[in-house]
Amino acid sequence: MTAKLKSEDGKARYAKRRETVEPVFGQIKEHQGARRFLRRGLRACEAEWKLLCGTHNLLKLWRHTATQPAARPATA
Q1: Euclidean distance between CA atoms 47 and 45, whole angstroms
Q2: C-alpha pair distances (Å), 47 with each of 31, 52, 56
Q3: At residue 17, does pLDDT exceed 90?
Q4: Which residues, at least 6 apart from 14, have a Cβ–Cβ distance to it below 8 Å?
Q5: Which whole-number Å values give the CA distances from 54 to 24, 28, 47, 59, in the listed order?
Q6: Strand, helix or coil at 32?
Q7: Are 48 and 39 in contact (CB under 8 A)?
Q8: Residue 33: left (phi > 0), alpha (psi -120 to 50), or beta?
Q9: What is the separation, in whole angstroms, between the first and last Cα of the chain?
Q10: Each residue of 59-71: pLDDT tens digit?
């Protein structure tokens, strides 16, 4: 693994992680305070995780639409 990460291709792929997946986990942990699951059992934890991810996505959509200017109706 060390040899793969030291190659140019490996460095580029590892740097790509910063842009794609890992910020989501950090945001869920920091902003939503989800450092551990509150319920017990695999099904309960899966449901809680889906709820956390859903709220994360809804917040992203809300922030995106809240910052966009309202569309003006076309006048003929």
Answers
A1: 5
A2: 19, 9, 14
A3: no
A4: 5
A5: 12, 11, 10, 9
A6: coil
A7: yes
A8: left
A9: 63
A10: 989 988 887 666 6
CA distance 50 to 5: 32
Contacts of 37 by beta carbon, 8 Å cutoff, 6+ apart: 44, 45, 48, 49
d(C-alpha 65, C-alpha 38), whole Å? 31
Mean pLDDT value across residues 24-47? 88
- Lookup result for tokens 């794609």: 20
pLDDT of residue 35: 86
What number is the average pLDDT over the span 21-46? Answer: 86
Give me the sign of the Cα torsion angle 38, 44, 46, 49.
Answer: negative
Q: What angle do CA 59, 60, 65 make, to 5 degrees?
A: 95
Predicted TM-score (pTM) of this structure:
0.58
Averaged pLDDT for residues 31-35 = 84
